Amino acid sequence: MTAAPAGGRQPLLFVISAPSGAGKTSLVRALVAGDDRLAVSVSHTTRPPRPTDVDGRDYHFVSSADFRAMRDAGEFLEHASVFGHAYGTSRQAVLEQVRCGRDVILEIDWQGAAQVRTAWPGAVTVFILPPSRGALRARIEGRGQDRPEVIARRMEEATRELGQHADFDHLVVNDDFEVATRQLAAIVEGCRDERPPTREDHRALLGQLLEGS
User: Fold this and answer.
1) Are 76 and 88 a contacting pair, CB within 8 Å?
2) Given 21, 61, 134, 198, which is the most exposed site by the fewest CB atoms within 10 A?
3) What is the Cα 136 distance to its own chain's centre?
């Protein structure tokens, strides 16, 4: 971790994980769109970009050699292999956002979440659940991006990932998207409210007391 920025407020780190097809990316985008105090850390990956991907927005797309060099240099806060491709979160990118006083979201898988719990003990972890296995399969198939054998492998992996939910601080079921977005926002606000008040939080009251008003 790092020291709190000027003003004494220690920003929060949120880790949001889910099995493929549960809708975490859409939820995170909706959450951040409604909260300018949140920043999403863009992961590095060796996965080839999809037609709709934008480098620097969806991921930082790098070669396997570059990824290994970053990993070996200790530049990742967490990293994991998912479906044959490497993913990692830049430690420096997270710290830069924290130093600016922004709460940061990591949209990563359960393997990375486990590493973050060790590296950043105050991180808040959230697991997104699908309403059912049938709904999860329908969402994966509906994307039209995967062959049947890939879908079967994603479903097998989803079963393994769902078994990790007990390690997370909060669970959100993505059945109704608007409801799930509100629940996710409520978790963020609740965690902010639980922080001990700082001098900055009480600046107005301190001014009144010192002035004798």
Assistant:
1) yes
2) 134
3) 20
d(CA 43, CA 58): 8
What count of Cα atoms within 13 Å lies in the side-chain half-sphere of residue 52?
Answer: 3
Give the phi and the psi of residue 138 in degrees, each rounded to 5: -60, -40
Each residue's pLDDT tens digit, 47-58 = 999 889 999 999
Whether pTM > 0.70 for this model: the answer is: yes
CB within 8 A of 117, min separation 6: which ones?
123, 125, 167
Cα distance between residue 204 and residue 29, in whole Å: 33
DSSP 69-88: HHHHTT-EEEEEEETTEEEE
Q: What angle do CA 186, 32, 98 make, to 5 degrees?
A: 95
